[in-house]
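Entry 12.
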Amino acid sequence: MSVELSIVTLIGCFIFSYFLSGNFIRLLTKKKIIAIPNSRSNHKSPTPLGGGLAIIIAFFIGCIPFLFLYNDAVKPPLYIASALALLCIISFRDDIKHVPAAIRLIAHFVAAIIGAFVVKHNGLIFKGVIDPDIEYIFIVLAIVTFVNLFNFMDGIDGITGAQVIYLGIAIALILSFLNNQSSYIYISLLLVACTLGFLIYNWHPARIFIGDAGSITIGYILSLLLLIIAAKGAWVQAIILPMYYFADAGYILLKRAISLEKVWQAHSEHFFQRAVRAGRSHAEVVVKIIILNIILLNLSLGALYFKGEILIECLFILCALVGTIVTINILPIKMPLLDLKAKR
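Predicted 3D structure (tokens):
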């Protein structure tokens, strides 16, 4: 697939996602697929829910040239397409009418089993240190965990879209520095282009929400891309890049588990949600996280120069964790310059 064709496809998918997202606002409103504010909500007005379908539809369309032109990689994308379809259908159904957690979890595991096969197709993450069968189980559990963490973190306007764009660009850069897998670089940037078209409507104040159909399915794609760069030797980068989500969601889940609360139930305890309740706008909180993400990206790229030097790589991970903790603590602090004058 030529660079020119890739660029044209990416631009086309961005435009298609933008117009499709706008049409979804009207369609979902007409069908009364609406998120009604409740005691846990961080929005005040009824808002169409399920707009992530626009991203996924545009993403599938953007994958068509990939399927035709990458003959050596046709099978893995076809497997992934079936997993994405399963997740998207179950998750959109959950957006419309509640689907039991057990059914959703079964779908997540089925998709993860398929995804783990594709990850292993790209190499071993632990390089044979542990039994490949045990590694396969680890990958399945990692995918399911990341998908749900990513979904849990979809709590304020723009946060998921901003995170997808950041991770997609970051993964593409890491792969380019590894001089590897132009096909995965294209997939990463395709996800960025499709999400950007949606984020224009989802930025604070959001006119449409991504819904589980978007956050679950996109979380699945990102989990595979992160595990794939780990399998290609960039395991440090796979840890550092999503550090904010790991820290925020991981801490809250652990806290709720220790308190014997139902960790799968919706809540509003995440640090970014607390910041909004403290009076910060959605935009200000997301911009602070974006600034952290830029720092995390630079740490990830810096760690590439010391690839294989375990102690130095661990130091980069520690710096990323410290930066994340600092960001978590400044989220509730008023910073007018970062507010972008957003009003709700």
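Annotation: The two ends are 44 Å apart (CA to CA). The CA atoms of residues 51 and 210 lie 5 Å apart.
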